[in-house]
Amino acid sequence: MSNLEKGYMKKILRRLKKEGVLKTTQYLVNRPSIRKQQQIAEKEASTWNNHFFEELGADRSTAEHLLEETRKKIPLFDEDIHVKSQKNQSTHLLAFAALKVAGFSPKNILEIGTYLGFTTCFLSHLYPESKIYTAALPSDDPVFDDYHILSGQGVDKVFEQRLARQNITVIKKNSGFLWEENLPDFELIWLDGGHQYPVVAWDHFYSLSKLTNDGWLFSDDIVIPGADGKSEDDPRFDAYHTVEYYSKRLQNKFEYLLKREDAATFMYAKKFVAYVHKRN
Question: Phi then psi for 169, rounded to 5 degrees?
Fold first, then answer.
């Protein structure tokens, strides 16, 4: 395990201790039993997403190289902690690069949840011939502050730089009202808006209704209920329940990518990216 991963694991353990999940984190990372679990987790995390590349017929190493070359073109600032290291960044970026390697060429791309514009800018560089629409909450929306905890001149400047590209159209509107816009259907949709009811439900409804045949929908931050003592009614499982609701009724089922492929998050803060490939 690298020093970066150890530091990230310690950060997660401190958070779990603060939340009362763990009694202590002292020496936990260095205990023999934990080190064994780390080794198992590293192996499972590193191979979890192999099925996606195999089914796509895309070489993973080629996709990783394309991701890195594309990532270098995006302005960064200090708060971009998950995109400065490929090890800890979300695998949705790698999935998009793998689609490109496999010959996928979307005409129109939709992103719900612009946030700081990193994925928006990434998609713009990765698919320069595509038209990218990104739905961002307007600053006067009642829940704007809940989703935008980072602010300041430096952040705002980088945000503007990321979105100042000719193939990006910013729609400043709550996603619950996207139906008012005369938008095209989309070959690729990245859904990263609100992850609780009611937002997560209407976002999936809209996205599925606007997805073209042979299109791809990716939905971020799916937490699957497990043996952590949390009730399945816990709001953090709303996205999972929404995905499963649709999956039981769709011809093409949702599948899951492990969001981050490091041992620390696999052991203590596991999340997924759900995706569906629409084929009639």
Answer: -115, 120
pTM listed for this prediction: 0.86
Structure token pair of residue 264: 């620390």
Residue 184 is given by DSSP the state P
Per DSSP, the three-state class of 11 is helix
| CA–CA distance, 71 with 16 (Å, rounded to integer) | 31
Residue 144 near residue 102 (C-beta atoms within 8 A): no
Paired tokens of 37: 């679990």
Q: Can you give the C-alpha Rg of the chain in angstroms?
A: 19
Structure tokens at 179: 């139906």
Distance, CA of 241 to CA of 195 (rounded, Å):
11
Number of domains in the chain: 1
* Residue 193 exposed, middle or buried by CB count within 10 Å (0-12, 13-18, 19+): buried
Domain range for 249 is 3-277
Q: Residue 31 carries which side chain, given as an amino acid letter?
A: R
pLDDT in tens, the chain (280 residues): 455 455 555 555 565 555 554 544 444 555 667 778 888 888 999 999 999 999 999 999 999 999 999 999 998 876 555 555 556 789 999 999 999 999 999 999 999 999 889 999 999 999 999 999 999 998 898 888 777 666 555 677 888 999 999 999 999 999 999 999 999 999 999 999 999 999 999 999 999 999 999 999 999 999 999 856 678 889 999 999 999 999 999 999 999 999 999 888 888 889 999 999 999 8
Q: How far apart are CA 275 and CA 94, in angstroms?
A: 13
Q: What gap in Å lies between CA 196 and CA 178, rounded to an integer? A: 18
- Domain of 180, CATH number, reads 3.40.50.150
